[in-house]
Design goal:
This protein is an alpha/beta fold. The protein contains 24 helices and 24 strands. The protein folds into three domains: about 240 residues, no CATH class; about 150 residues, 2-Layer Sandwich (Alpha-Beta Plaits), CATH 3.30.70; about 240 residues, TIM Barrel. Helix content is about 60%, strand content about 15%. The strands form seven sheets. The chain has an eight-stranded mixed barrel, surrounded by six helices. It starts with a strand and ends with a helix.
Amino acid sequence: MPIGSYTPSLVLISILVAMLASYTALDLAGRIATAKGQGAYLWIGGGALAMGIGIWSMHFIGMLAFHLPIELGFDLPITLLSLLIAILASGFALWLVSQPQLPMLQLGFGALIMGAGISGMHYCGMAALRMQPAIEYDPIRLALSLLIAFSASAAALWVAFRLRQQTPYVRLFRAGAAVFMGMAIAGMHYTGMSAAVFADGSFCGAVGTGLAVDGLDKLVLVTSLAVLSIALLTSILDARLESRTAELSNSLSVANRELTQLALHDTLTGLPNRMLLADRIEQAMRNAQEHHGCFALMFLDLDGFKPVNDAFGHHMGDQLLREVALRLREDMNGLNTLARIGGDEFVLLVELAERDDAPGFAARQVTLLSQPFIVAQNSVQISASIGIALYPGNGETQHELLMNADVAMYHAKAAGKNGYSFFDASMNTNARNLLQLQQDLRNGLKEQQFCLYYQPKFDAITGQPIGAEALLRWHHPQHGLLLPDRFIGLAEKTGLIIPIGDWVLNEACRQMRVWFELGYSHWRMAVNLSALQFGHDGLVGSVASALAMHQLPANSLTLEITETTAMNDADASMTVLRQLADMGVDLSIDDFGTGYSSLMYLKRLPANEIKIDRGFVRDLEHDSDDAAIVSAIVALGQALGLRIVAEGVETDKQQSFLTELGCDSLQGFLLGHPLPAEKFMADISAAEGKARAQTDASKV
């Protein structure tokens, strides 16, 4: 009986190929588990080919490692059939472990099929020798090889199923499992080989017509390693690509969540913004309609926030807004919404069990915000004005509800602040009128509906005219001639006061140029500046431009600012006033004595005159306190070297008192009413003619 032998190097190589094939199979199982749709079938097909070739190569190299004292060869069709069996068994195994579940019964059945495939591959490969007489097998060892094939298949399927997910150290576990599986497959092969019994006088029928043994081991080895390496590298690269894709997808998801957060939430407080609030209101309206419920929309505006912001800076203001948001949010329940829609404006969407619950809730918010805030170790006191719109009843859309709540909030502010007000239809009418007036104001500026009236100023001693104060009027198409108290507040609120103020400066300078050319070069034109206009960065440039355009000396223009405006931010005011003074423009402190001022700052202001408020002049004859105050103001002005102007002179006694007191100039209805330029000059000419006549008569 011929006794076979083995080439140790090829045996070792076959075992290593088995381990590599096992690792490749485990890695491919992981790729198939994460693949979707058609991609999973492509991985199963490609994996079956690579894994089948790998297992078959191990078997075939093991066959080539076996030597008999006779020449051997392999029948090509039978050899290819064994390869096909290996590929089909591998495909079935990969398909099985790609299933969502692998119960024990299914595992056992799969192990039986795969074990039969591996055994079939092995014994089919042995049959490719076409030994004559046929190979006989030791029954015990044959059975043992089948048992090993079945057990190895079961273990391989179970391990592949368990290790198909990408978990920490999964590749290390796969490597260990691949060693075990490779040894098991090799054990089955060499157990099966040991079961073969060759009869005396046996010869190989495939010699001459089949595959020759010489050099075949190298070809099979190179081919199998190439296929396994390509499959493994493809799997690893795809896994990395998928990992990178997953990371990118996760990053995009995080970025998308952050963008959504930014799009729907206020960046300062983290509260819902106007966009998210609109959606919440729509939801609340649908819910109220379906369940016959109700809710309140409360528009909340902070009272006194701007002074805090101006005094301590925006950083302090931002911190205060965060504290306000935190205090309001802590008082809210999960059914309600608190949103910040800009500046110091918040909106509360409050679900109500009864409509009568709204006043109590609003009052609690007012009380809550009236308590001091500690911001950057400073105690800050503010309050809140709240406007309330109820649904159903105060609007059909979220836009109407929000607008009506806003209108009610302004009504609460007008009523004294630090309180709340419910919306009613009359407020809407007023709001529409205000909105219409705002639009008319824009049109008025565009269509040149504004004009200037001029009130004369007179020298207190000589009675001669020394200039005029320019006063703004609006020829409204429907309402006629409007005085500033009807529209200046609205102009400041909308910012239109800046272009309107620039127009006033230019028109006043134009008119002064006309009078200048008529010989009144000693006159001064006084123009009032609003607080917003005075704080605007372009003021100095606008004044310089107006003077240059009309070729006026700077001292022919007097700019009047109120005492309160000058002292609101004394350091900033000082900078602007010094720039104007350096140009040569006269500066007057208007309404002196009515504001809060510091004499320390007052003496530093580069002012040329102070103007006594008409409120003190009005009651001079009847109120000794007013007389004392006016006397003190005149004395203060004289001590500081300032011109003293008194406005609101309406009686001869007032004129006499102020003249005797030492005022430099006077203005008021007693001396002259505000008039358009033509009538103004007509009155001045008449007064001058009368004065000349009196002078001539006195000479006679």
